[in-house]
Design goal:
By secondary structure, the chain is α/β, with parallel strands linked by helices. The chain is 30% helix and 28% strand. A hairpin with a 7-residue loop joins strand 8 (186-196) and strand 9 (204-211). The structure holds NADP nicotinamide-adenine-dinucleotide phosphate (NAP).
Amino acid sequence: MSEPLKLALVGIGKIARDQHLPAIAAEAGFALAAAVSRNGRVEGVPNFTDIAALIESRLPIDAVSICTPPVGRHRIAAQALSAGWHVMLEKPPGATLAEVHALEAQAQATGRSLFATWHSRHGAGVAGAAAWLLEKQIRRVDIAWREDIRVWHPGQEWILAAGGLGVFDPGINMLSILTAILPGPLRLAGARLAFPAGRGAPITAMLEMIHDEVAHVTADLDFRATGTPRWDIVIETDRGTLTLTEGGARLWIDGVEQPGAAIGEYPALYQRFAELIPAAQSDCDLRPLTLVADAFLLGERTETDTFVF
Ligand code: NAP
């Protein structure tokens, strides 16, 4: 068996600790070789406060996985590609579409892999949902994506700043699932966005989308929903109703639960990254971010009360 690839993890915050570190430890294709974060540290590996310091150290590195907030991620990814490393990006892949297109071009020019991950696409019920929807006619889709920002993103001020995406930070997970499972194209037709006073990103969003120019798709995104979160997608077809609950973890067809995939979301992401690297392939699907960008372009905006974490 070949040597594991030497991986640096960048942005040691909630998702790096909750998901990336355990997934890397379990994936034979990678060995954690360094951590990069201004304040966060990982025991047992060299730590650096900036990607430039890691590059200057000349520590042998093959790939980086970037878990910082979207604003600023382009600079880190571009420096990593320039250093000759393969790059994996947390979702959303960037703060703008153009910066991700630039990274794709850079990866291609340098013969390195760029992997824009969508972890929710690896939820246990998602592959089964996509398979069941093939050959079905979609009649309508209703989505509720409602969670308590204070519980799920404690103190993450960046999320409500410009470029942080606000309620689209979780909402883009839903869009990543929809674009993966619906058989036809999806486009945004309208949106209503509510911004807390003084904040640069919305705290609620109502979306109207059209699937295949036929079926209406509505989505209710709310970051102020207390109690049990709801991450549910209901799809009515000509041959039954499909329901995905718990953010893609559970799949139901006409009320009967279906068996799901056994591998976890983050182990699946690192397996995919390990597959892409030997062929220097990239995987960079920007449809979820395009729908978010269109909601910002087209959405009617209102201002709500100030929000304090
Ligand atoms: P987080 O807890 O705030 O961690 C991000 C880390 O990035 C921070 O701890 C910080 O570490 C570093 N960082 C670098 N520049 C920063 C800046 N300008 N502002 C704030 N932090 C900065 O965020 P997270 O929840 O891990 O989310 C990071 C990314 O993962 C986001 O794109 C998010 O959408 C995605 N994600 C999150 C979750 C989740 O449940 N939380 C799930 C899936 C994906 P230093 O201070 O040490 O530099």
